[in-house]
Amino acid sequence: QVQLQESGPGLVKPSETLSLTCTVSGGSISSNYWSWIRQPPGKGLEWIGYFYYSGSTNYNPSLKTRVTISLDTSKNHFSLRLSSVTAADTAVYYCARHLGGYHVFDIWGQGTMVTVSS
Amino acid sequence: EIVLTQSPATLSLSPGERATLSCRASQSVGSYLAWYQQKPGQAPRLLIYDASTRATGIPARFSGSGSGTDFTLTISSLEPEDFAVYYCQQRSNWPPALTFGGGTEVEIK
Predict the structure, then answer these.
(1) Buried-most residue among B3, B43, B60, B107 (CB within 10 A)?
(2) Of A42, A9, A3, A47, the residue nearest A26 (C-alpha)
(3) Alpha carbon of A4 to those of A21, A108, B32, B34, B90: distances in Å?
């Protein structure tokens, strides 16, 4: 079955760029929509954006100016870049697969904690 | 931006009782409403999509209803493993965005 695994630095300095990768196993990334979602400690969920394998993207308007999501089909993974981070970007970051053409998330990674601090 | 408001924030119930969770949208989302369950230290799990369709492997005690702006998740008889936080999520066409509600915690009374 399809599994997702996030990876990347757990600590990022303020004003720098947060970079995470989600590796997809058990299936091809060349189908479906793929999203990043985050959850600040003790708080709710926030959708960051998605990438469709055909190349189209859609980002949360509140983060749009700072976010880039991309796919690497040769490595079967997709990536998140979030620039100019502040302490407010401290969160658990999840990658997730959309269920078919529905914009709901049926498979999630385990999540990775990213702390923004000097 | 469409805002989802979940109520109550916390629901205190005993195993075997019925749980009724509410999600209200600031404008119509049609039937594009999903529900997730999240336990501490775990990723969310998809329960319901398209307002009332159970996801694969979800027990029949979970049911969803509603359309437009008012939605309900019902757990007919709470099992010990059902005590968790529940989130609703919508997808809007314009502005194109996916948003979550603030969550309802179902705790053991």
Answers:
(1) B43
(2) A3
(3) 10, 6, 25, 21, 23
Q: Cα dist. B9→A46, B23, B82, B92, B102 in Å?
A: 18, 11, 16, 24, 8
Cβ-proximal residues to A16 (8 Å cutoff; 6+ apart), any chain: A85
Nearest chain B residue to A35 by CA distance is: B98
Chain B interface test: which of A105, A107, A110 (most B C-beta within 10 Å): A105
pLDDT digits (tens, 9 = 90+) for B38-53: 999 999 999 999 999 9
A99 contacts B96? CB cut-off 8 A: no
**pLDDT value at position B32?**
94
Of B10 and A55, more confident: B10
* Residues A14-52: tens digit of each pLDDT: 999 999 999 999 999 988 899 999 999 999 999 999 998
Distance from CA of A75 to the nearest CA of B (A): 24
* Distances B13 to A20, B65, B78, B79, B83 between C-alpha atoms, Å: 39, 21, 8, 11, 9
Chain A contact probe: residue of B32, B48, B90, B98 with most A CBs at under 10 A: B98
Between chains, do A60 and B97 touch, taking CB under 8 Å as contact?
yes
